[in-house]
């Protein structure tokens, strides 16, 4: 709606010179305008009486879902700066118990079938660099479109990225139901006994859109800055440095980036083997902000009357934002 209105907006990482934010990058090198918080197709799976293995998705490559210690030396050498090894999963038991929606085994009075929300960073789909088959599909529609930020793409172009992100997420479930199943000593917790839920009403049983963590930013009368929200004092339970006179909502949040970088293990974009990585300044928190207000001016376009820009972030189904 902001785009259709003709109001000005921003997207991608701001450089430090713009708002002087402490964690902002100082140059575009490695921080191109396509660098965004990744999108994620969340999956809801429910327990079944029989084994159900999802079909092997297109462009599946198991190396995307492995701990980096399981890669070959040449693949490990392809990982960019700075690289902090992150395990694909802490343990199968963690995936089995975390984000559980229905747990009839441990909660009295709860009826099955049990259900789990799969929303793990391993399912995240980076946007800074795209795989070659996605680039080719985009370029066939419009030359140069593969270099656009997702905000600037058409709905048709975004759908190409959405479909590949969907296949990547389904690939994680396929990995859990095959390789991880084969390595499990206790098959009672196997993900083969879970199937995709029908609750979304889609033909492929996957949500009709991905979880979008980052969108465009309205050029408002006032653009909030990280330094405004820096907590005063040593703990996260202190106030931001600026309390706006026109505050319309109270908040405190972690400055949270999932892994925004994608690196191809062969060094080539045509490879289906890639992993995500953190870029400096764009990582999971901390820090947290202080206790803050959100100013009305940040909802008002800088040059347009009659429009308020506001958005409800599209969270996974069972998470709530207060």
Describe the model.
This protein is of the alpha+beta class and 322 residues long. The chain folds into 2 domains: 1-33 and 216-253 and 288-322, no CATH class; 38-212, no CATH class. Helices cover 19% and strands 11% of the residues. The strands form 4 sheets. The chain has a 4-stranded antiparallel beta sheet with strand order 3-4-2-5. Helix 5 runs antiparallel to helix 6 (155-183). The longest helix has 29 residues, at 155-183. The model is unreliable at 81-88 and 316-322 (pLDDT under 50).
Beta-strand content bin: 5-15%
- The count of helical stretches stands at 7
**How many domains in all?**
2
Shape: globular
Residue runs with pLDDT of under 50 for 5 or more positions? 81-88, 316-322
The spatial strand order of the largest sheet comes to 3-4-2-5
Determine the fraction of residues in helical runs and give it as a percent range.
10-25%
Backbone structural class: alpha+beta
CA-atom Rg in angstroms: 21 Å
What integer is the average pLDDT?
86
Quickly list its features.
single chain, 322 residues, alpha+beta, 2 domains, 4-stranded antiparallel beta sheet, two-stranded antiparallel ribbon, globular, disordered C terminus
